[in-house]
Amino acid sequence: LSVALHAQTADQIYAQAQKAFDAxxxxxCLKQLDRVNKIDPNYANxxxxxxxxxxxxxxxxxxxxxxxxxxxxxxHDPGAFYNRGYNYNELRKFDSAWYDYDQAIRxxxxxxxxxxxxxxCYANFSEYDSAILDYTRxxxxxPTNPAGYVGRGNVYILKGNYDKSIADFYKSTELDINRTxxxxxxxxxxxLLRMEKFAEAAKAYxxxx
Length: 209
Known about the structure:
Elements: H1 2-22, H2 26-39, H3 44-56, H4 60-73, H5 78-90, H6 94-107, H7 112-124, H8 128-141, H9 146-159, H10 162-175, H11 183-187, H12 189-194, H13 198-205
């Protein structure tokens, strides 16, 4: 009976921590999660939420520690590997980030963001063909998201495939119907200028004006 009561109490306190997180009161969230851990040191979701909290606070090293603890308890959760990979990426530990993104894909090969993230790692490694494959998979899984086209377009620039990069950037601007992200219009300037398409470059730059 006492174990059941403790588990319920941990659940109640965890709910308070989640409420504090949703309100962006991160210090209060961590305080409540510490209470959860004292009641139940194996309460896995507490470590996951702590990881999210430290990431929101840009304390990436502590976030990684929390995800380490979660993964020990729940070793087959793709989201935990993906989130830990993000923190490694923010610390510019691209080898570790790549490993985590790869693990996330192995556990769930149908999540578009996983491929985008691993593709970015490949781009950092100058493994451009592998990056293009991952960005292409991202586009296949999320064809209406402009981000995959921008990522792949940037890699095509690095490979000197300017026609393909221009096509991807135009596709991304076509999908960005609210014109909320100027990055594609800015990125497209390089391949257009390299190909001396100056009038087209001016038009593309004015897309978001």
